Amino acid sequence: MSSNPYENEPGYELAESDGDKKDMKAYAAKIRHESIRISVIEPLECILGIKANSTINPTDEEEEKDVDEGADITDTFADLRKRRFLWYYDCYMQSIAQGECEVTRKGRFTRMPFENPGNSMDGHFDYPNLRNRINQVKDAIIAETMGWTLRGKAAQEQEAGISENLRRQYEQIVEKYKNHKNFTVDLHIVDSNPFLWQLTYFGRPMTHLDGGIFNIKIYLSPDFPEDQPRVFVESPLFHYRVAKCGILCYFPARTDDMRCHVDAIVAALEEESPYDPRTNVHPEATRMFWGSPDDRKRYNRELRRSVERSAEYAYA
To answer: Is the pLDDT of residue 10 over 90?
Structure first.
């Protein structure tokens, strides 16, 4: 398969004419637009019960029908979609900004020579609309995450088993770090609510994080482990695993064990070399980290500056 989608069409594998080159650019442009709209925004709008504020390609009747019909469907991957949306939000916004510079708003999609009325990708560009809709999705997911704390309090008052389970896991993790004399992590429950944890990470000596103090909030759902924790680094940190909104990208060895989550959070912060494309959630930091030697030096400088600011932030 070619990275150029145009060349993946039968009979166009070796297309090189001037017309083909123009169509290649137009084809890639509309695929990028429609991928964000159809693969990212619409499924999450359906899951979150958000009705699109306007349509781009379908008729009003088709759009309303799609949203209403999908509203009652249970998406097995709903939590995964939400979590990864937060991870890659900055990447989506970067694609939208690039698209706005390259195409004309309301400009019609170019029909390709291999498309026909019964099998074509028709419509028009409207990146401002995508920007508004994607921000609505983000706000809804953040609001849902913050709401877990209140739902957790209610579950605690009702003596739900998940509340006691999380509290026991917390106590075991604290005891583990105490026994291992690990002084890089300080963990406590916020306001006696086992659905909100505060993790303070102290940068390990002789690393790029040396001297940093990072405050991290771990939001847990009453539906844990079906809904996985959402972890936000509240202190300034220029890191390719930390999105601009502070969401941390990490992968626990076991999704139902909070000890594995805490260990994975620390490992993600300290990681410096293994390449995993899933973890590149900060476009600028990623470009520097995996770029030239000079780019890597710039990354290290920015990281160290954020480490210094984190200590100031902690004592402010």
So the answer is: no
